[in-house]
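Chapter summary example: a protein plus IPE.
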Amino acid sequence: MSQPRYSTVPAHVAIIMDGNGRWANGRGLPRTMGHRKGVEAVREAVRTAGESGVKYLTLFAFSSENWRRPESEVSDLMGLLKSFVRRDLETLHRENVRVKVIGDRANLRSDVLPLLLEAEERTRANTAITLVIAFNYGARDEIARAMRSIAGDVAAGVLHPADITPERISARLDTAGIPDPDLIIRTSGEERLSNFLLWQAAYAELMFIPDFWPDFSRQTFLAALENYASRERRFGGLSERPLAVGS
Ligand code: IPE
Ligand code: IPE
Ligand code: MG
């Protein structure tokens, strides 16, 4: 496999996989067909990320607000997650992919939670890339759960309010131990975060791509990585590429 041309590879790419419904509608198909096709795009994205040297790939699969959708669509999405884990877990494991799930596990259906736990357990020691699946995930919910846990420690007298630092807050989030995303991509042309990784996105590069998720190909992903490599991140500091005199 030839080396991609870009030099600066993001360690963590997070993707808001949007537009499955519109992809299907445009073809006169039911929304569920868009979700099905979206699973194929997931497989390709994981492969492309791994080949490109990305170490963490986070995929927004189901938000804590997606429960507002019709019951039939919710149950379809649950079914797709289950069949993805059942069908793909062994391949992911063979490809040395570590699976990690973020989101609230408290009220997940009893046929979904054990599969997610199994995926994490089976792949725990893998090292090629970490696939973070955001499922029943909402950033405000995640932050509220972290705050409750911190408040509990303060109330119990084991943590002093003065010791609540950004690092300690990060360590209580579902993403504890995972570096903040360097690049957040959203497909389908929508330009919003929809409650995704709000804390962790502080200095992420944002990229909004017009393609609907089922059309997100290896080429689209590589082009996004190339675009990322051309950006200059400053983190509040000054440019490391001063303008040439006279230019
Ligand atoms: C993304 O596609 C998948 C999920 C949110 C689960 P959508 O289902 O949001 O598709 P659109 O945005 O309605 O086209
Ligand atoms: C965000 O997409 C959630 C996922 C991709 C899982 P939505 O389609 O739910 O977002 P909104 O409602 O358009 O903001
Ligand atoms: Mg959508």
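Key point: The longest strand covers residues 129-137.
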